[in-house]
Amino acid sequence: MDDQVSALQARGISAVALHSGRPWAEQKAQRAEARTAALIYASPEKLKSPRFRKWMRDIGIAAAAVDEAHCVSEWGHDFRPDYMSLDVLKSEFNVPVMALTATATVKVMEEVADRLTLDAPTVVRGDFARPNLTFSVEHVQGDKARAARVVELVQDQPSGRVIVYAATRKRVQAVDKALRAVGIKSAYYHAGRSSQARANVAAAFESGKKRVLVATTAFGMGIDHPDVRLVVHANAAGSLAAYYQQAGRAGRDGLPSRCVVLYSSADSMTHKRLRGNNPRPGAVAGWSAMQDYVFGQTCRQAQIIRYFTGEGAADCQGCDACTDGEAVAEQVRAARDGLKERGRARDAKKRKDAAVSLDSDQYTIIASFVGSLRKPLGKALIAKGLRGSSAKPVKRKGLAKNPEYGSLRGVPESTVLDALSEMLEDGRLVRKGRKYPTVWLPDKRVRAVREPGSKPRRPVPTGLKGALVKFRKAEARRRRWQPFKVLTNAVIDRIISEQPATTADLYAIKGLGEKKVLKFGEGILTLVRQHA
Ligand SMILES: [Zn+2]
To answer: Ligand 1 centre from 149 Cα, in Å?
Structure first.
C-alpha cells in the first residue's frame, strides 16, 4: 500500500494508507488526512469493523476498487477469507465497485463478480501475452543439482536483476548460500526473518547492492522493478496462476527476459504438504495446472493464455517448446521414465518387505517390549523402538532403555507394524487412548505417571471454556505472547456468558478492543457457534 501511495503522491494525487496495528494517535492523524484525500487505501480486514464502516459513511465515498481481487475467489491461487466480507461495498455503501487482478481464470472472474455482488459488470481484459518473456522448464533431480543449475542460470545472465523463488524457507537459504559461494551478490527473503532483515534485503535489492534475491512467495506483493532479466523457480510454483504472477515480474521494461522453472517429482510432495490436510479444491486444481505446464510439450506462452482465457493463442516462437520441441519431448519422456523406474523400485521393496514374516520368538519380543513400557504408546513409536531407531521421540520417551530396544533391528518397519496390528486383532495386545490410539498389554493396569509429592492436576476445562483456553494457548504460541495478552480469564468468562453471535456483539464485550476483535474475532465467533 505504501509504495502505491508514494507513487501517487509523486504524481500529485492526494492519497493516504490507513494502517491498523499502529498507535491510535497515528491512526487518528491518518484519518484526518484521509478526509480530504482523493484515494484512501485500507486493508479488507478493516472493513469488518463496524466503527470503521461508520467512519467511512461519515466521510462519504464515491467509488471503491478491490485490488488483487482474485483473493476473493476460493478458486484463485491466493484466497484470503478477509476478502469475502468486501460484499459490504455494495450492500452497505452501494457505490460503483471495480475489481482488479492480473491473474484470473474465467472461473475466478465469475466468482469475483459473484462474491462482490457486482451487477452485470463490464469486463475489461488485457492481453495475457508477454512477447518479451522466454519461458522454459527443466526437469532436475535432487536439491544439489537444482542449486547448481540456479547458479549456472544466474551466471549466464550477467546484467540486470534476478529473482529466484523456492518453495520453502530451507530451500531459499540453501540456494542463496550456493550463489554466494561462487561470489554472486545474493540475499534471501522469507517470512521467518525479522521485519528489519526483510526491509534491509528489499532495500539492498532496490538499490542494486544485491543483484539476486532468493525468496519464498512472501516476497513480491507490489514490487515493480523494470529490469528483472531472469525469474527462476528453483521449485515449481504452487499453482499456474501463482507462477504466471511471479514470472511476470520479469521484463517489465519490455526488454527480453527469461522465466525458468526447475521441476522435480519432489515438488509434488512439497506442495502437497504446504496445502495441508484439507486443501481448497482451487488449490488442488491450481497445482494440477502447474503440473500440466511442466509436463506440457506445446508452446508455454500459449499454454498459459489458454489456461486464463480458455482460448487458443499463436505460438510465441521463443520458448523451449517452440525452439526445440524435440528436446522438450525427450526431457518429459526421461522424467516419466524416471518416475516409473522409482515407482518400480518402491514396489519391489514393498514386495520384499511383505515377504518377511516374524517367528514366535519375535512376537514374544514385541509383547515383552510393550510390557516394559511405562505408558501406552502408538504403534509407529513402538516399531521404531523395536527396530533400534535413534529418532528424537524414541529418545524422549526413554525407549532406548527398554530391554528389547533394537531387538528387531533389520526387520522391515512395515513387517513390525503388521505384526502389531495382528496382535491387536487377536487380543495379544489391546488399544488404549481415545485421542491417539495407543498400544498396551491386556489385563495390565495403566498407572498414572506422577512424580511422588507433585501436586494433583487441576481439572481441565471442557466445552466452550476449554475451547477458548485452547484457542488462547495456540494464538499466544503463534505470536510468542503471554496467553493473558490474547484473552484474559475475565474476558473468556464474559464471552461464555454473553454468547456473542456477531462482530458487533464482540465489540460490546468489555476487554475486547478493535485490535483484538480484528485478530481473534472470527476465531471466537466460530468457537461460540460450535459450542452453542
Ligand atoms: Zn512458445
So the answer is: 22
| CA of residue 325 to ligand 1 center, whole Å | 9
Q: How far is the CA of 157 from the centre of ligand 1 (A)?
A: 21
Residues 6+ apart with CB under 8 A from 31: 18, 55
Final residue of a structural domain among 338, 369, 399: 338
How close is the Cα of 326 to the center of ligand 1, in Å? 13
Predicted confidence at residue 503, as pLDDT, reads 85
Instruction: Assess whether 11 and 140 both reside in one domain.
Output: no
Q: How many CB atoms lie within 10 A of CB 496?
A: 14
The mean pLDDT of the chain is: 89
Range of the domain at 53: 2-115
Assess whether 137 and 89 both reside in one domain.
no
Q: Do 468 and 501 lie in a common domain?
A: yes
* Residues bordering ligand 1, an ion, CB closer than 5 Å: 299, 301, 315-316, 319, 322
DSSP annotation string for 469-480: HHHHHHHHHHHT
CATH number, domain with residue 45: 3.40.50.300
pLDDT tens sequence across 134-189: 999 999 988 999 999 999 999 999 899 999 999 999 999 999 999 999 999 999 99
Whole-angstrom distance, CA of residue 432 vs CA of residue 311: 58
